Task: structure prediction
Amino acid sequence: MHIVDVIIIVLYILLTLGVGVWVSKKASKGLDSYFLGGKTIKWYYLGLSNGSGMFDVSGTAWMVGILFLYGVKSFMFMWMWPIWNQVFVMMFLAVWIRRSKVMTGSEWILTRFGDDKAGRASHLIVAIFAVVASIGFIAYFFEGAGKFMTVILPWDMSLSIAETTLLTSEQTYALLIIFFTTIYTIKGGMFSVVTTEVLQYLIMVVAGILVAGYTFYAFTDTEVNQLIPDEWKNVFFGNELTGFWSGDYEEFNRLIDTQGYKMFGAFIGMTLFKGFFSSVAGPTPGYDMQRILSTRNVKDAAYMSGFTNLVLFIPRYLLIGGIVLIGLVFIAPQMVGTGAVTGNDLEVVLPKVINNHVPVGIKGLLLAGLLAAFMSTFSAFVNAGPAYIVNDIYKKYFKPVASDRHYVKASHIASFGVVILGVIMGFFADSINSITLWITSALYGGYVAANFLKWVWWRFNGWGYFWGMLAGLIIATLQFFLDQNKANLEAGTLLHDLSEIPAIYLFPIILGFSLIGSLLGTFLTKPTDMATLKSFYTNVHPWGWWKPVRDHYSEEKIEKNNEFWLDMFNCIIGIIWQSSMILLPIFLVVRDYSKTWMAVAVFVLTSLILKFTWLDKVKNLETSEEEI
Result:
């Protein structure tokens, strides 16, 4: 590594730590200040912070690998998360969530189910889910950061005693980055997270523009068009994904056949099915939820969520597209030249490109940008997970009366605990892909049923929520252990067969168990108190089956929310709008200018539609005097 690149990275780390510690004094005023920034941070800063938090290095490495192999169709793989839950949040969920005026997602649950035994059971299970999800994501970052840094940095950081390896190089690098990030996150809370993430976002944008710009300098249009097959640039697909690589690159076709996405029509159908229910269920209790609750009022919550979509995708995919093009020119011939290509080879395309094929200076900025991506997402989860431990478990059930200083110190301890557990889980994960699929398909599969029903069905109660979430969590955890231990299972047994099923196809099974738990818990126990339901419905005002609540208070003429079809229309337009921002930079980098202009036209058209159907509606939202 050139000394210029080293200086850029060191300056970035010092600047981030300095800024994070500098703003930390604001976080010491209490839990609301520590976890939500006192609800004083402007929406566009929160939007930049939210976008930065989604720009993670593990996800970027995974997206580089799938775009490299599958071409532009791979943007649909992101629907597994599902990536367009941000669209649903933007259109209506951010407003519903922000109306609660609470600190965490599990505290919000009490406004839906009340503060009796059933409400507290639902409150506790969502807090546990939030902590488990945070630990899972920290393991995901641990795995990705280690692989990334080992390929980039030249030093062997493994630790051994008497020929016994205690820590591999990957693990040591990951621990060092996590240590530095944890310092400023724990010290400064939400203020440090948002401030540093805005800085990190700007660095990532510069890095993306420079890498994409470098590809225009290094490769001519003719070279790029000769290298990339036409089918690579084709968005449309059939029921089965057929290999389109030829000549020396035919080995890539074999990898496509073995990765589990061969039945592409069925795969996309499953992601659409999962995506709708996951998106309507709302954001999981994590950093995205915390950003919404940190906004100053409901208008700001909607603006922030829309702004997140607007600022995230174009710079991110400029970077990803640039890296993939460089990888196809330089790394692809090396991969096919060594024999069989594996999924693990795809995960290191990103660091190999940076290590060997990016100029001095740009390399330092790019490394700083990707380090920023890791640190921003990691810090967001380190801030979000402990909020549930301290506010929803420790404060509510163990120490309800204490000073603000005491709770902030408890938050520091909880943050360290979450990080340690996440790192331990990361030690036992065999790849980025395995954790990605577990989080997106299994863990989130257990979240969907209960959180979909809580919005739309008045009869759904706290015990239904508790048993639905618990059933989903248990099945998701079993799936993870099966996947991690499938090499030790006897072939032909039921457990071995289940472990071989791709996680995305297990989603209906996990959803089914969770739905059964939700319905049994609901019908075997009494309904939620009508006064609680009235308070929730009049405050949040969701659409769905709420007629008994309105009828019960008929003399007060509680209005029905009739905007379901408008919200769904906006979501469809929003998904197309979001997709255009992903495809536009990819087509630009690979020099398919006709499709680039088509993406621009779609972006402009959908933006105009959303101006009239969404933005004008947000501007007319009522804001209470308290929020003003």
Notes: The longest strand covers residues 164-167. The chain has a mean pLDDT of 80. The chain is about 75% helix and 0% strand.
